[in-house]
Amino acid sequence: MDSTTATTPVATEQKFVRGLGLLDSTMLVAGSMIGSGIFIVSSIIARQVGAPGWLLVVWIVTGVLTLMAALSYGELAAMMPKAGGQYVYLREAFSPLWGFLYGWTLFLVIQT
Question: What is the pLDDT of residue 57?
Answer without folding.
Answer: 93
